[in-house]
Write a structure and sequence with these properties.
Number of strands of chain A: 12
Number of helices of chain B: 3
Distance between the termini of chain B: 45 Å
Oligomer: heterodimer
Order of helices and strands of chain B: HEEHEEEEEHEEEE
Shape of chain A: elongated
Helix content of chain B: under 10%
Order of helices and strands of chain A: HHHHHEHHEEEHEHEEEHEEEEHH
Mean pLDDT of chain A: 92
Strand content of chain A: 15-25%
Radius of gyration of chain B: 22 Å
Largest sheet of chain B: 10 strands, antiparallel, barrel
Strand content of chain B: over 45%
Distance between the termini of chain A: 82 Å
CATH class of one domain in chain A: Alpha Beta
Largest interface: A-B, 50 and 46 residues
Helix content of chain A: 25-40%
Shape of chain B: elongated
Low-confidence stretches of chain A: 336-341
Number of strands of chain B: 11
Radius of gyration of chain A: 25 Å
CATH architecture of one domain in chain A: Alpha-Beta Complex
CATH topology of chain B: Lipocalin
CATH class of chain B: Mainly Beta
CATH architecture of chain B: Beta Barrel
């Protein structure tokens, strides 16, 4: 009897330890190429919007994959395939490199130089969370620079900042070169400029593997903060490097009557990125969930400003930031103001 | 149906037991064990579009209490299991990690068959409920970093307990199997970021589960060995959890060798403490 118990335990242990179906490590170029293509095929969200024929891409790149190519060559070829999507949220990440698509801002004027910004805010500006802020134009204009939505902003940060600006005529909220980050910070800041709950857009995600298998658009609303709010004029400064969560922030702010978007078109990036991986261990990031504006339109390729202003070479030579100057001038001309609540 | 029979039988048992003079009070068997073993994980929310296994070490702590109840003329016993486990795993290329952790509570009632042709053998069969919650966290991911898990299950449960001797050393072997047949669970939707859930998009997050979308089994072996004035309980716990819900495939497989101390005690408190002749306490 005891022997039977022992044998049973050994047998069941082997049975329960049996292998689970799943991809194991593989450095095969063909296998990794097919895996990457399939991950994007089933999960990337902008094929139709960008008119990308992903099957044609497969055919074109498949013949360029060989079993003898090195990891570096394979990486470069796969990165090249991803670049066909023209998507700043799409990366291939290995231990030796990170592919990226930066043409959405590299091919356009920069319209932001910290050296010029320094001439306005100096080195004595205040810092609250991820925001730098100070008063300009004899304390009549508030200026905030928020360089990354990955840097946290708390409600207390915002309360103190708005209090500091209480006697200002208007506020410049500069999100140039802000490449995005956490979406909830966008909502937290934007809620400080609302008087009522508003529809800000729609969200979707892929419920199936087909290129157009999206859920019905789900409306997104934003309610006013119950803390200090700013209802005087606001000018949001943008450039082509205002991307992802920053694009979402601009998408909300442009709906508000006291807000003017000034500068250059934003970089876009309206698809929330997801991550996956290849059998070789490289990770891949891609746009997975489109965020639509209030008219159910994509903003993947950016949002135009209300007032287009670019840095001029003359101003750059003089150490001036043309966009900040234009924003200050607009605030100094009286606009509709309600006051700080 | 079986549960109803148990309940009716239980009521009869309670009334009979009030009249009967017990030979000995009902005691509780309690054990706390720690285990070390291996995890094999996969979750297509964390790795969409590909099935990648993550493997690594896991640890668990398991507390078990079991006692005969007054139900059905003391033919029904109650078992409670509290399990806490945590593990760290990596993919085959060792370029990414998934950390996993689960907590679960299990309450079961078993009908006991003790009059069997084999001496020392008891067979128990019954039902149990389990509430569990946990997470799989991939440190590499952007908007899909965590796959949260929460389950409520009704299980079929069976157990065999065999008392025997080896060289006059009394040993007790137990095998238990538990399989859920119905329940509800929380599952993210394929491709749905948590941000959308926070914005109120909660459709389809709670699903009914059964064999069509969830295959789970737990196999539990223990051997009690008296060592001095202690009873050492050695065990092996195999847990297999597989779901395919909202187009997300998950498996969490663990195998752990366990060791701990078991004890048999008589629990009493409240008014029973008034009779100090029954005990000698360091506290009361």
């Amino acid at each position: 009897m005891n022997k039977y118990i022992l044998y049973s335990i050994i047998l069941l242990s082997i049975l329960f330890s049996s292998c689970e179906k799943g991809a194991e490590f593989s450095s095969s170029p063909r296998e990794n190429f097919e895996a990457l293509w399939k991950i994007l095929d089933e999960n990337y969200c902008f094929f139709a919007y960008k008119n990308v024929d992903w099957n044609e891409v497969h055919e074109r790149y498949s013949v360029q994959i060989s079993d003898t190519m090195s990891q570096y060559s394979l990486f470069d070829k796969l990165a090249e395939m991803l670049a066909e999507l023209k998507d700043g949220h799409t990366n291939l990440i290995s231990s030796f490199d990170k592919s990226r698509y930066w043409a959405w801002y590299e091919n356009y004027p920069r319209n932001f130089y910290t050296e010029l910004q320094d001439n306005y805010i100096g080195t004595t500006y205040k810092i609250a969370g991820g925001m730098k802020y100070t008063r300009l134009a004899n304390d009549s204009v508030g200026y905030v620079y928020y360089g990354s939505f990955s840097n946290g902003v708390g409600d207390n940060n915002l309360d103190y900042m708005f209090t500091y600006f209480k006697n200002c005529k208007g506020l410049i909220f500069d999100v140039r070169d802000n490449g995005g980050g956490v979406m909830s910070y966008s909502d937290r800041i934007a809620s400080r400029f609302l008087t009522e709950k508003i529809l800000t857009g729609y969200s979707q995600y892929k419920k199936g593997n087909g290129h157009n298998d999206f859920t019905e658009p789900n409306p997104l609303y934003l309610s006013p903060s119950d803390r200090i709010r700013w209802l005087k004029p606001v000018i949001v400064l943008t450039n082509r490097h205002s991307y992802s969560a920053t694009n979402d922030f601009v998408n909300i702010m442009r709906l508000l009557p006291q807000v003017t978007i000034m500068g250059d078109r934003t970089g876009g990036g309206s698809g929330l990125p997801f991550s996956s991986e290849l059998p070789i261990g490289w990770s891949v990031r891609f746009s997975a969930c489109p965020m639509l504006d209030v008219n159910m339109q994509h903003t993947e390729f950016g949002i135009d400003p209300d007032v287009k202003v670019s840095l001029t070479n003359e101003d750059i030579a003089k150490g001036k930031d043309t966009i900040i100057d234009a924003a200050m001038a607009r605030i100094m001309n009286p606009q509709d103001t309600v006051g700080v609540q | 149906m079986k549960r109803t029979v148990w309940l009716i039988g239980g009521l009869i048992g309670v009334s009979l037991s009030l009249a009967a003079q017990r030979e000995a009070p009902l005691s509780t068997n309690e054990s706390t064990m720690i285990g070390i073993g291996g995890y094999n994980l996969q979750d297509t929310y964390l790795s969409p579009g590909i099935n990648i296994n993550y493997t690594g070490l896991m640890m668990r702590v398991l507390n078990e209490r079991m006692r005969v109840t007054c139900l059905a003329d003391e033919h029904i016993s109650r078992q409670q299991l509290v399990n806490v486990e945590f593990g760290s795993t990596h993919n085959g290329a060792e370029t990414a990690n998934i950390y996993a952790g689960f907590v679960d509570y299990d309450l079961g009632y078993h009908y006991r068959f003790t009059e069997l042709p084999i001496d020392g053998l008891k067979l128990l069969t019954g039902l149990s409920t389990r509430i569990s919650g946990g997470f799989l966290y991939n440190t590499r991911n952007s908007n899909n970093p965590v796959s949260g898990k929460a389950d409520f299950d009704l299980n079929l449960s069976g157990m065999a307990i065999y008392n025997f001797c080896v060289a006059q050393l009394p040993l007790t072997f137990r095998y238990q199997m538990e399989v859920p047949f119905a329940g509800v669970l929380f599952s993210l939707n394929k491709g749905q970021p948590y941000y959308f859930i926070s914005e109120g998009d909660t459709e389809g997050l709670i699903r009914v589960s059964s064999f069509h979308n969830k295959q789970v089994m737990r196999n539990y072996f223990t051997l009690d060995i008296p060592v001095g004035s202690f009873t050492v309980r050695m065990g092996y716990l195999n847990s297999m959890y597989r779901t395919n819900v909202n187009d997300i495939k998950t498996h969490v497989i663990s195998n752990a060798f366990m060791i701990g101390i078991a004890k048999e005690f008589i629990a009493f408190g409240g008014k029973n403490l008034k009779d100090k002749s029954k005990y000698r306490s360091a506290y009361y």
